[in-house]
Fold this protein.
Amino acid sequence: MQTEYLVIGGGIAGTLISYELLLHNKSVMVIDDTTAVKASIVAGAILNPVNIKQWNVAKDYQQYIAAALDSYTSLQKLLNTPVISEVPIIAFDAPAKKEDILIQPFLHNITGRDAAMIKNTFATPYTAQKISPAFQIHTANLFSAWRKYLLAKNAFLDAHFEMEQLSIANGTVMYKHIHAEKIIFCEGAAAIQNPLFSHLPFTKNRGDALLIFIPGLPKKFIYHNGIRLIPTGNQLFWCGSNYTWNYTNLEPDTEWRKQTENTLKDLLNIPFIIKDHIVAERPTTAGQQPLMLLHDSLPAAMFNGLGTKGFLMGPLLAKSFAKKLVSK
Ligand SMILES: Cc1cc2nc3c(=O)[nH]c(=O)nc-3n(C[C@H](O)[C@H](O)[C@H](O)COP(=O)(O)OP(=O)(O)OC[C@H]3O[C@@H](n4cnc5c(N)ncnc54)[C@H](O)[C@@H]3O)c2cc1C
């Protein structure tokens, strides 16, 4: 089987780069191990204009959001499934005076029924403000629809890629029955073991999230009070998360779960039930720099290190990296 680009990984990085390459009329084959944990599925996956801790606008937000809206709405249309929704964020603990005037257009007072709902539902003494527009990416929909789309083009293989089976000779990539012009690694945190890019400053960390059933909480908002509550359907809310740098396994962190449960008991005046506890590794780098690299001497590349704003930054980075790849 012949393809121009062999893409390893079907998280947000592999999805966006394969999409952009198709837009350039290139052929792709994506290999993804769908049994492995994807950071992209465990993620909160929101596009938030405001850094809530610092109360300033996320760096280069306007550039990133323009590309993100373009990619996610185009994918939504192409795949005919909900991929992106506008969901305002209710943020507590807003300082009375915001130093950064650029933030003002995104902040709105909460009035009327919404103010009453917040007063009745939350026990926090803090002032709440609405951040809008903000967006949520429906990751499960996106990845399964993209997989189906590629399968229909005979461009997806659900398998574990084995590096020992890869050979690159005379500028051609060979993997089992697949011959490709280039291989692009989008393996998320697994890239730390990639021998072709062994010099990179990966600093992976792990994050936990809970799935919580909160029947009385309106699902038209995301709620942020240190932890985030993000509606995922059927009155379930994604709740997270933490950053753990020293760890030996991906078992659920029971201590964090207990703390989070206590935080929620203090925060909410309404009942909730924890339904699930999920964990994944974030592929990050020293200095939080995304990686869009071409190998020095081989027809190989890497798109990784998307970090904590992967869903916001990914589309613009994928567009510019795809342009670079096709121009080589
Ligand atoms: C708890 C948590 C919360 C987060 N919240 C947010 C958030 O709100 N917003 C945000 O933008 N980001 C968030 N992130 C970060 C975000 O998840 C990452 O930036 C992004 O998902 C990384 O995408 P990726 O495609 O590089 O990696 P992944 O999503 O991990 O995808 C890698 C893929 O490669 C596949 N793979 C790896 N090795 C092989 C192999 N040998 N063979 C075949 N397939 C292979 C894996 O199966 C996987 O499908 C969060 C992360 C965590 C853990």
Q: What stands out?
A: Residues 61-79 form the longest helix (19 residues). The helical segments are 12-23, 39-42, 61-79, 112-121, 139-152, 254-267, 310-327. The domain at 1-45+138-202+283-328 is CATH 3.50.50.60 (FAD/NAD(P)-binding domain).
